[in-house]
Amino acid sequence: MEKKLFRVINDKCKACGICIKNCPRNIIEKLEDNKAFITDDCIGCAVCFKLCKFDAIEQIEVEEKTEVCQVCPIHCTIRPGRTGACGRYTNENDKLFRNEPLNIVDPDMLKIDSDTQLPNFPLLLGFGAGSNIYSTDIAAKCTAGAKVEGVDIVSCVSETILSFNGARVKIDTDEFLGDNGTPVRREGAIVGYMNTSEYGSQTMYIGGSHLNTSPSGHMVLRTTADLLNKKPVTLRTNTVKELVIQHGKPPIIDGVQAERMRIGCGTVVATTFTLERWRDLWGDEKFIDEVIAIDYDITTKMTAHTTAGLRYGYRDSGITPVGTYSSPGRYFGNPGDGWGGTTVMKGVDAIKSIDKDVAWPGLRLLVTEPTAVRAEYFILNEDLEPVPHPIPEKVEQVLEYLRTNCEPCNCNVSVVAGFGGGVRDVISKERSLNVNAALKEGKIKYTINGQPVHIMPGGGITCEACVELMPEGAFAWVPTPASVTPMEATMTLDTYKEIGGYLNDIEQIDDLLENRDTKIVRPSKSKVI
Fold first, then answer.
1. pTM of this prediction?
2. All domains of the chain, ordered by start, with CATH?
3. What is the DSSP letter of 282?
4. For the residues 28-44, what does the mean pLDDT come to?
5. Under DSSP, is residue 400 helix (H, G, I), strand (E, B) or coil?
6. Of 7, 53, 3, 5, which is closest to residue 28 (Cα–Cα)?
7. Whole-number Cα distances in Å, 409 to 62, 251, 529
Protein backbone atom coordinates (compact mmCIF):
# COMPACT_ATOMS: atom_id res chain seq x y z
CA MET A 1 0.00 0.00 0.00
CA GLU A 2 1.37 3.42 -1.01
CA LYS A 3 2.64 5.65 1.75
CA LYS A 4 1.77 9.32 1.30
CA LEU A 5 2.20 12.62 3.11
CA PHE A 6 1.54 16.19 1.93
CA ARG A 7 2.95 19.70 2.10
CA VAL A 8 1.87 23.21 1.06
CA ILE A 9 3.42 24.89 -1.99
CA ASN A 10 3.85 28.32 -0.44
CA ASP A 11 3.90 30.26 -3.73
CA LYS A 12 0.55 28.80 -4.77
CA CYS A 13 -1.24 29.11 -1.42
CA LYS A 14 -3.93 31.84 -1.47
CA ALA A 15 -4.49 31.77 2.31
CA CYS A 16 -8.14 30.76 1.88
CA GLY A 17 -7.98 28.58 5.00
CA ILE A 18 -10.14 25.74 3.67
CA CYS A 19 -7.48 23.15 4.51
CA ILE A 20 -7.12 24.50 8.04
CA LYS A 21 -10.90 24.30 8.65
CA ASN A 22 -11.26 20.76 7.36
CA CYS A 23 -8.14 18.96 8.56
CA PRO A 24 -9.46 16.09 10.71
CA ARG A 25 -6.45 16.20 13.06
CA ASN A 26 -6.13 20.03 13.18
CA ILE A 27 -2.45 19.84 12.30
CA ILE A 28 -2.38 22.53 9.57
CA GLU A 29 -1.17 25.83 10.97
CA LYS A 30 -1.58 29.42 9.78
CA LEU A 31 1.67 31.31 9.12
CA GLU A 32 2.16 35.04 9.73
CA ASP A 33 1.13 35.77 6.15
CA ASN A 34 -2.03 33.65 6.72
CA LYS A 35 -0.75 30.95 4.40
CA ALA A 36 -1.07 27.32 5.45
CA PHE A 37 1.69 25.08 6.76
CA ILE A 38 1.35 21.31 7.23
CA THR A 39 3.21 20.18 10.34
CA ASP A 40 5.11 16.93 10.85
CA ASP A 41 1.94 15.43 12.32
CA CYS A 42 0.50 14.95 8.79
CA ILE A 43 -1.05 11.51 8.38
CA GLY A 44 -1.65 11.68 4.62
CA CYS A 45 -5.43 11.57 4.68
CA ALA A 46 -5.45 13.89 1.61
CA VAL A 47 -8.36 16.07 2.76
CA CYS A 48 -6.33 19.22 2.11
CA PHE A 49 -5.17 17.87 -1.28
CA LYS A 50 -8.75 17.16 -2.37
CA LEU A 51 -10.21 20.46 -1.16
CA CYS A 52 -7.54 22.91 -2.33
CA LYS A 53 -8.81 24.84 -5.37
CA PHE A 54 -5.41 26.30 -6.21
CA ASP A 55 -3.32 23.12 -6.52
CA ALA A 56 -1.26 24.38 -3.59
CA ILE A 57 -0.95 20.96 -1.92
CA GLU A 58 1.49 18.35 -3.18
CA GLN A 59 2.34 14.81 -2.18
CA ILE A 60 5.82 14.14 -0.84
CA GLU A 61 7.98 11.07 -0.43
CA VAL A 62 7.87 9.27 2.87
CA GLU A 63 11.32 8.46 4.16
CA GLU A 64 10.84 7.61 7.81
CA LYS A 65 9.23 4.46 9.13
CA THR A 66 5.45 4.64 8.93
CA GLU A 67 2.47 2.30 8.94
CA VAL A 68 -0.42 2.45 6.46
CA CYS A 69 -3.82 1.94 8.09
CA GLN A 70 -6.02 -0.67 6.38
CA VAL A 71 -9.19 0.03 8.35
CA CYS A 72 -10.92 2.38 5.88
CA PRO A 73 -10.31 3.41 2.26
CA ILE A 74 -8.32 6.53 3.29
CA HIS A 75 -5.26 4.45 4.23
CA CYS A 76 -3.62 7.01 6.52
CA THR A 77 0.18 7.01 6.64
CA ILE A 78 0.83 7.05 10.37
CA ARG A 79 4.23 7.93 11.81
CA PRO A 80 5.41 6.35 15.09
CA GLY A 81 3.48 7.79 18.03
CA ARG A 82 0.91 9.46 15.74
CA THR A 83 -2.81 8.81 15.37
CA GLY A 84 -4.77 8.50 12.11
CA ALA A 85 -7.49 10.80 10.77
CA CYS A 86 -10.31 9.11 12.70
CA GLY A 87 -8.39 9.45 15.97
CA ARG A 88 -8.87 5.76 16.75
CA TYR A 89 -5.61 4.04 15.71
CA THR A 90 -2.07 4.85 16.89
CA ASN A 91 1.30 3.66 15.59
CA GLU A 92 3.00 2.03 18.56
CA ASN A 93 6.30 0.31 17.87
CA ASP A 94 5.51 0.06 14.14
CA LYS A 95 2.14 -1.55 14.71
CA LEU A 96 -1.31 0.03 14.69
CA PHE A 97 -3.41 -0.34 17.83
CA ARG A 98 -6.99 0.65 18.56
CA ASN A 99 -6.79 3.32 21.27
CA GLU A 100 -9.95 2.16 23.05
CA PRO A 101 -10.01 -1.39 24.49
CA LEU A 102 -12.85 -3.78 23.77
CA ASN A 103 -15.84 -2.76 25.87
CA ILE A 104 -17.15 -6.02 27.36
CA VAL A 105 -20.56 -5.76 29.00
CA ASP A 106 -20.44 -7.01 32.58
CA PRO A 107 -21.77 -10.59 32.34
CA ASP A 108 -23.62 -10.12 35.64
CA MET A 109 -25.85 -7.54 33.90
CA LEU A 110 -27.02 -9.86 31.13
CA LYS A 111 -30.53 -11.28 31.43
CA ILE A 112 -32.48 -13.27 28.85
CA ASP A 113 -35.92 -12.02 27.82
CA SER A 114 -38.28 -15.00 28.03
CA ASP A 115 -40.23 -13.86 24.96
CA THR A 116 -37.36 -13.11 22.56
CA GLN A 117 -34.67 -15.36 24.07
CA LEU A 118 -32.30 -12.41 23.57
CA PRO A 119 -30.29 -10.60 26.26
CA ASN A 120 -31.06 -7.10 27.50
CA PHE A 121 -27.62 -5.91 26.28
CA PRO A 122 -25.16 -7.11 23.65
CA LEU A 123 -22.19 -9.15 24.86
CA LEU A 124 -19.90 -6.21 24.09
CA LEU A 125 -20.13 -2.75 22.56
CA GLY A 126 -19.09 -1.71 19.09
CA PHE A 127 -17.07 1.10 20.70
CA GLY A 128 -13.51 -0.12 20.92
CA ALA A 129 -14.05 -3.05 18.55
CA GLY A 130 -12.43 -1.37 15.55
CA SER A 131 -13.56 -1.13 11.93
CA ASN A 132 -13.02 -3.18 8.84
CA ILE A 133 -13.58 -2.61 5.15
CA TYR A 134 -16.67 -4.60 4.32
CA SER A 135 -16.44 -7.70 2.19
CA THR A 136 -18.61 -10.69 1.38
CA ASP A 137 -16.10 -13.03 3.01
CA ILE A 138 -14.99 -11.10 6.11
CA ALA A 139 -16.83 -11.23 9.42
CA ALA A 140 -17.66 -8.25 11.62
CA LYS A 141 -14.62 -6.82 13.36
CA CYS A 142 -15.45 -8.84 16.45
CA THR A 143 -17.94 -11.70 16.64
CA ALA A 144 -18.30 -12.74 20.26
CA GLY A 145 -20.04 -15.70 21.80
CA ALA A 146 -21.14 -16.56 25.34
CA LYS A 147 -23.74 -18.56 27.21
CA VAL A 148 -26.26 -16.30 28.99
CA GLU A 149 -28.64 -18.01 31.41
CA GLY A 150 -28.21 -21.24 29.46
CA VAL A 151 -28.75 -19.67 26.01
CA ASP A 152 -25.91 -19.52 23.46
CA ILE A 153 -25.67 -15.89 22.33
CA VAL A 154 -23.65 -14.22 19.55
CA SER A 155 -22.97 -10.48 19.19
CA CYS A 156 -21.51 -9.15 15.92
CA VAL A 157 -19.95 -5.75 16.60
CA SER A 158 -18.05 -3.17 14.60
CA GLU A 159 -17.37 0.53 14.40
CA THR A 160 -19.19 0.78 11.10
CA ILE A 161 -18.10 3.24 8.43
CA LEU A 162 -21.26 4.80 7.00
CA SER A 163 -22.21 7.37 4.38
CA PHE A 164 -25.87 6.95 5.40
CA ASN A 165 -25.62 8.67 8.75
CA GLY A 166 -26.76 11.82 10.47
CA ALA A 167 -27.84 13.52 13.68
CA ARG A 168 -31.39 14.56 14.51
CA VAL A 169 -31.49 17.46 16.96
CA LYS A 170 -34.50 18.52 19.04
CA ILE A 171 -34.02 22.07 20.33
CA ASP A 172 -36.33 23.30 23.07
CA THR A 173 -37.13 26.92 22.31
CA ASP A 174 -39.91 29.16 21.04
CA GLU A 175 -37.38 31.24 19.15
CA PHE A 176 -37.78 31.08 15.40
CA LEU A 177 -34.75 29.28 13.99
CA GLY A 178 -35.95 29.10 10.39
CA ASP A 179 -38.71 27.73 8.17
CA ASN A 180 -38.85 24.08 7.16
CA GLY A 181 -36.00 23.46 4.73
CA THR A 182 -33.91 26.42 5.92
CA PRO A 183 -30.21 25.56 5.48
CA VAL A 184 -28.13 25.14 8.63
CA ARG A 185 -24.51 26.24 8.21
CA ARG A 186 -21.24 25.76 10.04
CA GLU A 187 -18.37 28.01 9.05
CA GLY A 188 -20.23 28.82 5.82
CA ALA A 189 -20.85 25.20 4.77
CA ILE A 190 -24.37 23.76 4.64
CA VAL A 191 -24.38 20.87 7.14
CA GLY A 192 -28.12 20.31 7.56
CA TYR A 193 -31.64 21.72 7.37
CA MET A 194 -34.35 22.90 9.72
CA ASN A 195 -37.30 20.55 10.00
CA THR A 196 -40.66 20.92 11.73
CA SER A 197 -41.56 22.95 14.78
CA GLU A 198 -43.29 21.05 17.57
CA TYR A 199 -44.77 22.22 20.88
CA GLY A 200 -41.95 24.18 22.43
CA SER A 201 -39.27 22.67 20.19
CA GLN A 202 -37.58 23.16 16.85
CA THR A 203 -35.98 20.22 15.05
CA MET A 204 -33.09 20.02 12.63
CA TYR A 205 -31.34 17.24 10.77
CA ILE A 206 -27.58 17.30 10.28
CA GLY A 207 -25.94 15.13 7.64
CA GLY A 208 -27.52 12.38 5.59
CA SER A 209 -26.20 10.79 2.43
CA HIS A 210 -26.60 13.78 0.10
CA LEU A 211 -24.82 16.22 2.38
CA ASN A 212 -22.21 13.68 3.53
CA THR A 213 -21.09 13.20 -0.06
CA SER A 214 -21.36 16.88 -1.04
CA PRO A 215 -18.35 19.19 -1.53
CA SER A 216 -18.82 20.22 2.13
CA GLY A 217 -18.97 16.61 3.31
CA HIS A 218 -15.93 16.88 5.56
CA MET A 219 -17.50 19.70 7.56
CA VAL A 220 -20.83 17.85 7.59
CA LEU A 221 -19.31 14.69 9.07
CA ARG A 222 -17.20 16.67 11.56
CA THR A 223 -20.38 18.41 12.75
CA THR A 224 -22.30 15.15 13.01
CA ALA A 225 -19.54 13.53 15.05
CA ASP A 226 -19.22 16.54 17.35
CA LEU A 227 -22.96 16.57 18.07
CA LEU A 228 -23.14 12.82 18.64
CA ASN A 229 -20.15 13.04 20.98
CA LYS A 230 -22.08 15.68 22.97
CA LYS A 231 -19.72 18.54 22.13
CA PRO A 232 -20.94 22.16 21.71
CA VAL A 233 -21.33 23.19 18.07
CA THR A 234 -21.89 26.73 16.75
CA LEU A 235 -24.23 26.91 13.77
CA ARG A 236 -26.22 29.57 11.95
CA THR A 237 -29.38 29.78 9.89
CA ASN A 238 -30.94 32.50 7.74
CA THR A 239 -32.51 34.02 10.86
CA VAL A 240 -30.01 33.18 13.63
CA LYS A 241 -26.41 34.33 13.36
CA GLU A 242 -25.08 32.20 16.21
CA LEU A 243 -26.80 29.07 17.48
CA VAL A 244 -24.86 27.01 20.03
CA ILE A 245 -26.28 23.54 20.56
CA GLN A 246 -25.01 20.68 22.70
CA HIS A 247 -26.74 17.54 23.86
CA GLY A 248 -28.09 17.94 27.39
CA LYS A 249 -27.64 21.74 27.43
CA PRO A 250 -30.05 24.59 26.69
CA PRO A 251 -29.56 26.26 23.31
CA ILE A 252 -27.82 29.64 23.13
CA ILE A 253 -29.41 31.82 20.47
CA ASP A 254 -27.47 34.91 19.42
CA GLY A 255 -25.86 35.06 22.84
CA VAL A 256 -29.05 34.46 24.86
CA GLN A 257 -29.55 31.13 26.62
CA ALA A 258 -33.08 29.76 26.30
CA GLU A 259 -34.60 29.04 29.72
CA ARG A 260 -38.13 27.68 29.55
CA MET A 261 -39.90 25.24 27.28
CA ARG A 262 -43.61 25.82 26.80
CA ILE A 263 -46.04 23.26 28.14
CA GLY A 264 -48.35 23.67 25.14
CA CYS A 265 -49.78 26.22 22.70
CA GLY A 266 -51.46 29.51 23.52
CA THR A 267 -54.63 27.66 24.46
CA VAL A 268 -52.92 26.33 27.60
CA VAL A 269 -52.26 29.88 28.79
CA ALA A 270 -55.80 31.15 28.39
CA THR A 271 -57.73 27.95 29.13
CA THR A 272 -57.14 24.36 30.38
CA PHE A 273 -55.17 24.20 33.65
CA THR A 274 -55.13 28.01 34.13
CA LEU A 275 -58.84 28.50 33.47
CA GLU A 276 -59.97 28.36 37.08
CA ARG A 277 -57.30 30.86 38.04
CA TRP A 278 -58.41 33.33 35.35
CA ARG A 279 -62.06 32.82 36.33
CA ASP A 280 -61.19 33.82 39.89
CA LEU A 281 -59.77 37.09 38.52
CA TRP A 282 -62.29 37.68 35.72
CA GLY A 283 -65.22 40.04 35.63
CA ASP A 284 -66.51 43.10 37.45
CA GLU A 285 -64.36 44.61 40.20
CA LYS A 286 -61.63 42.08 39.55
CA PHE A 287 -58.44 42.08 37.47
CA ILE A 288 -58.97 40.44 34.05
CA ASP A 289 -61.47 40.89 31.22
CA GLU A 290 -59.36 39.35 28.45
CA VAL A 291 -56.24 37.23 28.04
CA ILE A 292 -54.39 36.97 24.73
CA ALA A 293 -51.62 34.36 24.50
CA ILE A 294 -49.36 35.03 21.51
CA ASP A 295 -48.01 31.86 19.90
CA TYR A 296 -46.55 30.94 16.49
CA ASP A 297 -48.76 27.86 16.52
CA ILE A 298 -52.09 28.79 18.14
CA THR A 299 -52.63 32.32 19.45
CA THR A 300 -55.57 32.31 21.85
CA LYS A 301 -58.24 34.85 22.80
CA MET A 302 -59.77 33.70 26.09
CA THR A 303 -63.26 35.25 25.89
CA ALA A 304 -63.98 33.74 22.47
CA HIS A 305 -62.33 30.34 22.94
CA THR A 306 -64.61 27.31 22.70
CA THR A 307 -63.47 25.80 26.00
CA ALA A 308 -63.29 29.07 27.92
CA GLY A 309 -65.33 32.12 27.01
CA LEU A 310 -67.96 30.35 24.92
CA ARG A 311 -68.40 27.52 27.41
CA TYR A 312 -68.74 29.75 30.48
CA GLY A 313 -70.45 32.77 28.97
CA TYR A 314 -67.60 35.29 29.14
CA ARG A 315 -68.33 38.74 27.80
CA ASP A 316 -66.54 39.22 24.45
CA SER A 317 -63.88 41.91 24.68
CA GLY A 318 -64.15 42.97 21.04
CA ILE A 319 -60.38 42.66 20.72
CA THR A 320 -59.03 40.67 17.77
CA PRO A 321 -55.44 39.38 18.07
CA VAL A 322 -53.00 39.25 15.17
CA GLY A 323 -52.84 36.05 13.15
CA THR A 324 -55.02 34.02 10.81
CA TYR A 325 -58.43 33.00 12.15
CA SER A 326 -58.76 29.26 12.71
CA SER A 327 -61.78 28.69 14.98
CA PRO A 328 -63.43 30.55 17.90
CA GLY A 329 -60.69 32.09 20.00
CA ARG A 330 -57.87 30.43 17.99
CA TYR A 331 -55.56 32.11 15.47
CA PHE A 332 -52.54 30.79 13.60
CA GLY A 333 -49.48 32.92 14.43
CA ASN A 334 -46.77 34.19 12.14
CA PRO A 335 -43.35 32.66 12.96
CA GLY A 336 -40.68 35.14 13.99
CA ASP A 337 -38.18 36.00 16.68
CA GLY A 338 -40.64 37.77 19.00
CA TRP A 339 -43.14 36.77 21.67
CA GLY A 340 -44.15 33.11 21.53
CA GLY A 341 -41.97 32.62 18.45
CA THR A 342 -44.05 35.11 16.43
CA THR A 343 -43.40 38.49 14.81
CA VAL A 344 -44.92 40.29 17.81
CA MET A 345 -42.14 42.27 19.51
CA LYS A 346 -44.18 44.01 22.22
CA GLY A 347 -47.53 43.43 23.87
CA VAL A 348 -49.50 46.12 22.08
CA ASP A 349 -48.51 44.61 18.71
CA ALA A 350 -50.57 41.54 19.64
CA ILE A 351 -53.75 43.60 19.03
CA LYS A 352 -54.95 43.57 15.44
CA SER A 353 -58.14 45.58 16.04
CA ILE A 354 -60.61 46.72 18.72
CA ASP A 355 -64.32 46.72 17.93
CA LYS A 356 -65.55 49.92 19.54
CA ASP A 357 -69.14 48.66 19.45
CA VAL A 358 -68.17 45.77 21.70
CA ALA A 359 -65.20 46.88 23.84
CA TRP A 360 -65.60 49.29 26.76
CA PRO A 361 -63.55 51.82 28.73
CA GLY A 362 -61.73 50.21 31.64
CA LEU A 363 -61.43 46.83 29.93
CA ARG A 364 -58.44 45.00 31.46
CA LEU A 365 -56.27 43.03 29.03
CA LEU A 366 -53.31 40.75 29.67
CA VAL A 367 -51.02 39.86 26.76
CA THR A 368 -48.47 37.10 27.31
CA GLU A 369 -46.93 34.02 25.63
CA PRO A 370 -46.98 30.24 26.37
CA THR A 371 -43.91 30.42 28.63
CA ALA A 372 -45.20 33.60 30.34
CA VAL A 373 -41.63 34.96 30.20
CA ARG A 374 -42.96 38.20 28.72
CA ALA A 375 -46.26 39.79 29.67
CA GLU A 376 -47.90 43.24 29.54
CA TYR A 377 -51.09 44.53 31.15
CA PHE A 378 -53.35 47.15 29.53
CA ILE A 379 -56.49 49.06 30.46
CA LEU A 380 -58.57 50.65 27.70
CA ASN A 381 -59.10 54.40 28.12
CA GLU A 382 -62.18 56.43 27.18
CA ASP A 383 -61.13 56.30 23.52
CA LEU A 384 -60.78 52.52 23.78
CA GLU A 385 -57.03 52.71 23.36
CA PRO A 386 -54.82 50.26 25.29
CA VAL A 387 -52.80 52.00 28.00
CA PRO A 388 -49.98 50.07 29.75
CA HIS A 389 -50.34 49.52 33.50
CA PRO A 390 -48.36 47.58 36.10
CA ILE A 391 -49.33 43.93 36.29
CA PRO A 392 -51.49 43.38 39.41
CA GLU A 393 -49.98 41.04 42.00
CA LYS A 394 -52.75 38.44 41.64
CA VAL A 395 -52.27 38.37 37.85
CA GLU A 396 -48.52 38.03 38.35
CA GLN A 397 -49.20 35.00 40.56
CA VAL A 398 -50.99 33.24 37.69
CA LEU A 399 -48.12 34.12 35.34
CA GLU A 400 -45.66 32.64 37.81
CA TYR A 401 -47.79 29.52 37.98
CA LEU A 402 -47.48 29.25 34.19
CA ARG A 403 -43.71 29.67 34.37
CA THR A 404 -43.32 26.96 37.00
CA ASN A 405 -45.19 24.56 34.71
CA CYS A 406 -42.54 24.97 32.01
CA GLU A 407 -39.66 22.50 31.74
CA PRO A 408 -36.08 23.77 31.42
CA CYS A 409 -34.91 24.12 27.82
CA ASN A 410 -32.64 21.41 26.51
CA CYS A 411 -31.11 19.99 23.34
CA ASN A 412 -31.46 16.32 22.56
CA VAL A 413 -29.35 14.60 19.91
CA SER A 414 -30.09 11.26 18.27
CA VAL A 415 -27.93 9.27 15.88
CA VAL A 416 -29.63 8.17 12.68
CA ALA A 417 -27.82 5.35 10.88
CA GLY A 418 -28.53 3.40 7.72
CA PHE A 419 -26.84 0.00 7.94
CA GLY A 420 -26.39 -0.93 4.29
CA GLY A 421 -25.39 -4.08 2.47
CA GLY A 422 -21.76 -3.92 3.56
CA VAL A 423 -22.67 -3.93 7.24
CA ARG A 424 -25.08 -6.80 6.75
CA ASP A 425 -22.51 -8.78 4.78
CA VAL A 426 -20.20 -8.96 7.80
CA ILE A 427 -23.03 -10.66 9.71
CA SER A 428 -24.16 -13.13 7.02
CA LYS A 429 -21.76 -14.52 4.41
CA GLU A 430 -24.65 -15.98 2.41
CA ARG A 431 -26.80 -12.92 1.62
CA SER A 432 -27.62 -9.68 3.37
CA LEU A 433 -31.38 -10.26 3.02
CA ASN A 434 -31.05 -13.04 5.61
CA VAL A 435 -30.21 -10.36 8.19
CA ASN A 436 -33.26 -8.27 7.28
CA ALA A 437 -35.58 -11.26 7.44
CA ALA A 438 -34.29 -12.38 10.85
CA LEU A 439 -34.53 -8.82 12.15
CA LYS A 440 -38.18 -8.51 11.10
CA GLU A 441 -38.92 -11.84 12.77
CA GLY A 442 -37.48 -10.50 16.02
CA LYS A 443 -34.54 -12.90 15.97
CA ILE A 444 -31.85 -10.18 15.84
CA LYS A 445 -31.53 -7.26 18.21
CA TYR A 446 -29.73 -4.18 16.88
CA THR A 447 -28.18 -1.66 19.27
CA ILE A 448 -25.86 1.34 18.98
CA ASN A 449 -23.35 1.53 21.81
CA GLY A 450 -25.57 -0.82 23.76
CA GLN A 451 -28.60 1.47 23.50
CA PRO A 452 -31.93 0.35 22.02
CA VAL A 453 -32.77 1.66 18.57
CA HIS A 454 -35.99 2.48 16.80
CA ILE A 455 -35.85 0.79 13.41
CA MET A 456 -37.91 2.65 10.86
CA PRO A 457 -40.54 0.43 9.21
CA GLY A 458 -40.13 -0.73 5.63
CA GLY A 459 -37.11 -2.07 3.83
CA GLY A 460 -33.49 -1.72 4.85
CA ILE A 461 -32.14 -1.10 8.33
CA THR A 462 -32.43 2.59 9.13
CA CYS A 463 -32.52 3.22 12.85
CA GLU A 464 -32.35 5.99 15.41
CA ALA A 465 -31.12 6.13 19.01
CA CYS A 466 -30.58 8.85 21.61
CA VAL A 467 -26.93 9.49 22.55
CA GLU A 468 -27.74 10.30 26.20
CA LEU A 469 -26.15 7.19 27.73
CA MET A 470 -23.58 6.44 25.06
CA PRO A 471 -19.87 6.54 26.02
CA GLU A 472 -17.89 9.71 25.45
CA GLY A 473 -16.04 9.76 22.13
CA ALA A 474 -18.04 6.87 20.71
CA PHE A 475 -18.47 8.48 17.28
CA ALA A 476 -15.92 9.63 14.74
CA TRP A 477 -15.55 10.36 11.03
CA VAL A 478 -13.12 9.41 8.29
CA PRO A 479 -12.18 11.62 5.35
CA THR A 480 -13.82 9.50 2.64
CA PRO A 481 -15.95 11.28 4.05
CA ALA A 482 -18.08 8.96 6.17
CA SER A 483 -19.10 8.51 9.77
CA VAL A 484 -17.89 5.93 12.27
CA THR A 485 -20.86 4.52 14.20
CA PRO A 486 -20.52 1.64 16.69
CA MET A 487 -23.08 -1.09 16.08
CA GLU A 488 -24.07 -4.38 17.68
CA ALA A 489 -26.25 -7.15 16.22
CA THR A 490 -27.14 -9.75 18.87
CA MET A 491 -28.86 -13.09 18.31
CA THR A 492 -28.88 -16.70 19.44
CA LEU A 493 -26.26 -19.04 18.06
CA ASP A 494 -29.04 -20.94 16.28
CA THR A 495 -30.14 -17.76 14.47
CA TYR A 496 -26.53 -17.00 13.54
CA LYS A 497 -26.31 -20.43 11.95
CA GLU A 498 -29.65 -19.96 10.13
CA ILE A 499 -28.62 -16.68 8.48
CA GLY A 500 -25.26 -18.07 7.36
CA GLY A 501 -22.98 -16.40 9.88
CA TYR A 502 -19.21 -16.69 10.15
CA LEU A 503 -19.17 -19.57 12.64
CA ASN A 504 -15.39 -20.04 12.49
CA ASP A 505 -14.86 -16.40 13.54
CA ILE A 506 -16.75 -16.57 16.84
CA GLU A 507 -14.52 -15.70 19.79
CA GLN A 508 -15.76 -16.58 23.24
CA ILE A 509 -16.00 -13.71 25.72
CA ASP A 510 -13.76 -15.58 28.19
CA ASP A 511 -11.04 -15.84 25.52
CA LEU A 512 -11.35 -12.15 24.67
CA LEU A 513 -10.97 -11.23 28.34
CA GLU A 514 -7.84 -13.34 28.57
CA ASN A 515 -6.15 -12.48 25.26
CA ARG A 516 -7.31 -8.98 24.23
CA ASP A 517 -7.09 -5.47 25.64
CA THR A 518 -10.50 -5.19 27.31
CA LYS A 519 -12.45 -3.37 29.97
CA ILE A 520 -15.70 -4.25 31.70
CA VAL A 521 -18.54 -1.72 31.22
CA ARG A 522 -21.95 -1.44 32.80
CA PRO A 523 -24.21 0.37 30.32
CA SER A 524 -27.52 1.85 31.42
CA LYS A 525 -30.76 1.28 29.60
CA SER A 526 -31.88 4.53 28.01
CA LYS A 527 -35.16 5.92 29.30
CA VAL A 528 -35.25 8.64 26.63
CA ILE A 529 -38.06 8.04 24.13
1. 0.90
2. 5-98 (3.30.70.20), 102-159+423-449+483-521 (no CATH), 165-259 (2.40.30), 266-400 (no CATH)
3. B
4. 90
5. helix
6. 7
7. 52, 7, 17
